[in-house]
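Before we proceed, please read the two lines closing this message. Report back on whether the structure tokens fit the sequence:
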Amino acid sequence: MVDLAAWQEILGISFNAPSLLELALVHRSYINENHDLASASNERLEFLGDAVLGLVVAERLYQDFPHFTEGEMTKLRAALVCQDTLTRIARTTGLGDYLYLGKGEEASGGRHKPANLAGALEAVIGAIFLDQGSATTIDFILRLFDKELEEVARRGVEVDYKSRLQELIQASGQPVPVYRVVETKGPDHDKRFIVEVIANDMVLGKGSGKSKKAAEIEAARSALEKLSANFTE
């Protein structure tokens, strides 16, 4: 077995039972070739870690976004616990270097496969939960997922402006809003786009941004503000 002391420092966790951490890193392919060293893979810990991660992320979304609907929070949670996100985070910790793999899996690039990295990260979370308890596990998850939480939440809010506007417009019997670039400013390395959102030949809002998408989001936000103001007058 490899020396995991340095990796525990990277994780910021000192295991009371290092064998739990080792188990979290055992891929099923390793079992077939090393019966004397490992009797189980990390799959049970992966199951536990997946549940713990989902609960922690759900609680954070519930607390941080009180105005989001169940459907909106479900989408954000799915984005945060998906394989792509887990793989990115696993790579930042160097997790792949510590996986226990069979020779065939090793030869096929198993240390870099998203499924292996994502599953092992969930297993590590499960191991921390068993070894350290809920408080330390929650702190670990929020620390490790901090940037992803901010980014996914930001993207979720952005998408929400456009979907909310479309729902509001269609509910009033008007056609789907259209976004139109009306102007571009600045040099290529610092270009800004000016976008209008239009429905039924009426300009509902206007926005600017460093990308067309960002400008569309700002236009949708502006339109929602104007429409809300009209409803309250």
Summary: The chain has a mean pLDDT of 88. The beta strands are 178-185, 192-199, 202-209. The longest helix spans residues 146-171.
